[in-house]
Amino acid sequence: MRSEHTGRLAWWGLWPLPRLVAVLVAAGLCAWEGTLPRTAAGARWSVGATIAAVLIIAALGGRNRQRQASSAWVRHGAEALSAALSGRPVGRATRTTALGAAVWVALIASTIGWDLYSFALQLHALPTLSRLFGDVTRHEWGRGVVFAGWLLLGGYLALGWRRPLWDAQVPVRRGSGRAAGRRSDAGEGSR
Amino acid sequence: MSMGAVVWSVIGGAWALWIAVTAVVRPLPNLASVVRAFLGSWAGRALALAAWGGAGWHLFCQRP
Questions:
Q1: What is the pTM of this model?
Q2: ipTM score of the complex?
Q3: Do B39 and A123 touch (CB under 8 A)?
């Protein structure tokens, strides 16, 4: 399936009927999952099977379609983290992106830090993040809705932000910034 | 309202505010770009999928 304007492949790359079937199966799974208590064997089997299926799909769908080699990703990540912690431009990061990244790091760190603090004290007045979610997932509808969100996120993490299928024949050069060039070539539509 | 609820409200409000700000102010990295930063390579994607799987197992099989 190619877009009329750009000629790029759709991100999922499936025909409408299989996509419709996949959506219906996922909706049925979410509705069924909502009826299960966390201690049920069916809950463990279905969640475990979902995790395994998403990992397999990520592996099969991602061959030669990553935008960067892992070594380049680690190097750029270290630069971004260094820029975020210092608040100064480092490597490819500008001052604005460094300050923005610093706020993201602070938000994520405060969330994880407060969750760990609440977990360590085990007080009723200090609920952990999972206890807050537990207040929602103990309801049938809540468990189904949260499971649907979790499933959508997993699908995006497995298949999203890949290089387009038509570009997948050329492997990414180890340690290269080829992805950045491809990203600008591909534009918004490949996201 | 307990102290934990107040702190979680503040943290949640900060998340919502920052997501809104980064959606409007273009040069700032937004939520999508943070997620995509992890999906750029196999290492980052594996890290994100491991966190996703662990969170799902904990949420749906261990928490009430």
A1: 0.75
A2: 0.88
A3: no
